[in-house]
Amino acid sequence: MTLEAIKYDEGSLQILDQLLLPFKSEYIDVKDTEGGWNVIKKMQVRGAPAIAIVGCLSLVVELRATHCNSTKELADFIQSKLEYLVTARPTAVNMGNAAKYFTEKVQRLASDDGMSVKNLKKIIMTDMEEMLAKDIAGNKAVGDFGADDILTRSNKQPVCILTHCNTGSLATAGYGTALGVIRSLKNRDALKHVYCTETRPYNQGARLTAYELVYEKMPATLVCDSMAAMLMQRKNISAVVVGADRVVANGDTANKIGTYQLAIVAKHHDVPFYVACPTTAYDSTIANGDSIKIEERPSQEMSSINGVPVAAPGIQCWNPGFDVTPAELITGGIITEHGLFKPHELKDKLGLINGSKKA
Ligand SMILES: CSC[C@@H](O)[C@@H](O)C(=O)COP(=O)(O)O
């Protein structure tokens, strides 16, 4: 078994089929953007950062076999493929942010008269290939900032963490976001225990996070989502740390369904609640969480497990894949690769960082 969700080498892209985990380790060849769109839609690869990386790398693979006669033709081709990839899953913003960034870049470079088709292709492909290393570096920084803050609160005493969904190596290029914070705590010998929720209905916690925790030999226990309140009442939880699919301007955060109720329970028990995500999950164009589009998944994903029915035939199902945690419940803060911010600070602080990068 392996934890390498994305294998990429010089134009060859393979993804670990996460629908088969934890019982089978099988890779799928992704040969073009249609293949990329399909593995994202079916959730054979999932997790906001991994979705964007696989989407863009599927375009790199396709670009290698694509001939364009002009830089304008190439830029329009890349733009249309990126627009298509964004439609696979609507809530996670990472693919949308990548599409915006690469569209702006390719159209700007294409308008330069001295640019050749060959060079333009190379610049964009190299930039996309670098997403893998950049994501890991960002995750490591997130992990360290998160561990610093949690250990400051605990007076450097080892901590018990509750996490939700899967935010580890399988959801990213490696290391992980919320699971990256947990990994950083473990690296400092400061992780007493980690609890992961099952994460119904798709069981990313039971299938994927539990698999990563066992693989990494972390002291870990699986709980049902419905046990979170009891857990916080009885088990001395030091912090809840989750990932994000989209953090909007006021700090409201869309993440895996079930996150919002964890934040409410954490507030009731005075447990700090953290969102851990690189800024690739930040969307400054939406003012607050009411306008985030929430993906609704097929009802069979809820009414059956691995094809075995678990609900009464004929019952209707409502299956939103994500919920929105209001900023005021994110009491620990939002941990980014630039540091930890309170939700209300995010807009100004990230605006300053982005502004100074441009200057
Ligand atoms: C680093 S991943 C953060 C989030 O993307 C994760 O918690 C999550 O909600 C994933 O949802 P999924 O539907 O499995 O793609």
Could you please describe the fold and organization of this structure?
The chain has helices at 33-41, 48-64, 71-86, 94-110, 117-129, 131-153, 178-187, 204-215, 228-234, 259-268, 300-303, 346-358, and strands at residues 6-9, 12-16, 27-30, 159-163, 191-197, 220-223, 239-242, 246-248, 253-256, 273-276, 282-283, 304-305, 308-309, 322-325, 333-336, 339-341. The protein has 359 residues and is of the alpha/beta class. The chain has 2 domains: 6-129, Up-down Bundle (Four Helix Bundle (Hemerythrin (Met), subunit A)), CATH 1.20.120; 155-358, Rossmann fold, CATH 3.40.50. It binds 5-S-methyl-1-O-phosphono-5-thio-D-ribulose. Residues 46-49, 92, 165, 167, 171-172, 177, 204, 243-245, 255-256, 321 line the site of 5-S-methyl-1-O-phosphono-5-thio-D-ribulose. The site of 5-S-methyl-1-O-phosphono-5-thio-D-ribulose has 17 residues, from helix 2 and strand 9.
Keywords:
359 residues, alpha/beta, Four Helix Bundle (Hemerythrin (Met), subunit A), Rossmann fold, 2 domains, seven-stranded mixed β-sheet, four-stranded mixed β-sheet, 12 helices, 16 strands, 17% strand, binds 5-S-methyl-1-O-phosphono-5-thio-D-ribulose, EC 5.3.1.23
Offer a quick outline of the entry.
The chain is α/β, with parallel strands linked by helices and 359 residues long. 42% of the residues lie in helices and 17% in strands.
Spatial strand arrangement across the major sheet:
6-5-4-7-10-15-16
Overall CATH class of the largest domain: Alpha Beta
DSSP strand (E) fraction?
15-25%
Rounded radius of gyration (Å)? 20 Å
Q: Specify the CATH homologous superfamily of the largest domain.
A: Translation initiation factor eif-2b, domain 2
Which CATH-level-2 architecture of the largest domain?
A: 3-Layer(aba) Sandwich
Bulk shape: globular
The total count of helices amounts to 12
Q: How do the SSEs run, as a string of H and E?
A: EEEHHHHHHEHEHEHEEEHEEHEEEEEH
The name CATH uses for the topology of the largest domain is Rossmann fold
- Helix and strand composition category: alpha/beta
Catalytic activity: 5-(methylsulfanyl)-alpha-D-ribose 1-phosphate = 5-(methylsulfanyl)-D-ribulose 1-phosphate
InterPro entries: IF-2B-related (IPR000649), IF-M1Pi (IPR005251), IF_2B-like_C (IPR042529), Initiation_fac_2B_a/b/d (IPR011559), M1Pi_N (IPR027363), NagB/RpiA_transferase-like (IPR037171)
Pathway: Amino-acid biosynthesis; L-methionine biosynthesis via salvage pathway; L-methionine from S-methyl-5-thio-alpha-D-ribose 1-phosphate: step 1/6
EC number: 5.3.1.23
